[in-house]
Design a protein that fits this description.
This protein is α+β, with helices and mostly antiparallel strands. It has 13 helices and ten strands.
């Protein structure tokens, strides 16, 4: 069994009105629902979107015969007139958050661009127009602008709007039928310190960094498929950071001391956390509709993997800068 019977979920019950814990070992799944939530309940997954965006970029580059060391400007020549960033910036450095881009473009800046089909390229234009603060590859710094740029890479490489490209590259092939950038009518209502969070649409230009809604079943499926595909897993879990960086980081994931991949997602009213342990073929996920639930979720995921690694990842999962 995947091991939920050995994990104390009581703190999560106390912290979240509605949440689901799911785990899979060698595709044997277990789950625990809290409140009225089940494995089919839909939640905002926030920055858990980034690994799916990264997989979409990987698949798009593989199909186009482009390496991850290709300069972004070569893929997005339409931005040449606005390009103030380092011209040697590569695709891998964008996905690894080691781009050196000036972290000045906010979510509100992107939201003001509107919801037209070409918004991914317009968002990327804002990001590269802001320039760089250091050479690429020198330092890891969390910045959603990297993933706004990644969205434009996916759209340009496929010739489709970003959402359609993710659908064709990741969601359909992996059977993630309950994962979407559209807000489902049955989205679990979020709670942000006692305030009910409405299920409004996520700004389209920001979607590559955190716009998906999904279920525990689909997130487990995503993790299982990633573990099963070495041509995607190996570049994803290769460390792209330096010894002095705040953390070890691959393509869209933080990397633990024993080969774990983990991250969290945060939006008002929602918290999400995801963990992979490739050596144990373990996937663990917590989706919760409560802003106060992340510490408990991090403890649960850490406990799930402790027997396999001996590591305590509670603080790392909780404080990851999603």
């Amino acid at each position: 069994m995947a091991g939920l019977e050995r994990v104390d979920v009581a703190p999560l019950r106390a912290a979240a009105g509605h949440a689901v814990v799911g785990t899979s070992v060698d595709r044997v799944r277990e789950s625990v629902g809290i409140g009225r939530a089940t494995t089919a309940s839909s939640f905002r997954v926030a920055s858990l979107t980034k690994p799916l965006t990264a997989v979409a970029v990987l698949r798009a580059t593989q199909r186009a015969g482009i390496g991850l060391d290709a300069p972004v400007l070569d893929v997005l020549p339409g931005l040449r007139a606005d390009w103030a960033a380092d011209r040697d910036l590569t695709i891998a450095e964008v996905l690894a958050q080691t781009s050196g881009l000036a972290p000045t473009v906010s979510g509100d800046d992107i939201a003001r661009l509107g919801d037209h089909d070409g918004v991914a390229l317009d968002a990327a234009r804002l990001v590269v127009r802001a320039g760089s603060i250091r050479s690429p590859g020198l330092r890891w710094e969390y910045y959603n602008g990297n993933y706004f740029l990644a969205g434009a890479l996916v759209a340009t490489l496929t010739g489709e709007p970003f959402e359609e490209a993710v659908e064709s590259l990741v969601l359909r092939p992996w059977g993630l039928a309950s994962t979407s950038f559209a807000v489902p009518p049955d989205l679990t209502p979020g709670d942000d310190r006692g305030r009910r969070v409405a299920g409004t649409a996520y700004p389209r230009g920001r979607r590559p960094s955190g716009g998906l809604c999904s279920t525990v079943e689909d997130v487990l499926s995503f993790g299982e498929h990633l573990l099963d595909e070495p041509d995607l897993l190996e570049p994803t879990r290769t460390a792209r950071t330096r010894a002095g960086d705040p953390m070890r980081y691959g393509l869209g994931w933080a990397l633990g001391p024993s080969g774990q991949l983990y991250l969290n997602g945060r939006l008002p009213g929602y918290r999400a956390a995801l963990l992979l342990v490739p050596a144990a073929h373990l996937v663990g996920v917590v989706l919760a509709a409560d802003s106060a639930s992340l510490p408990a979720a991090a403890r649960i995921l850490s406990d799930l993997q402790r027997d396999h690694t001996g590591d305590d990842l509670t603080l790392a999962i909780d404080t990851f800068a999603a």
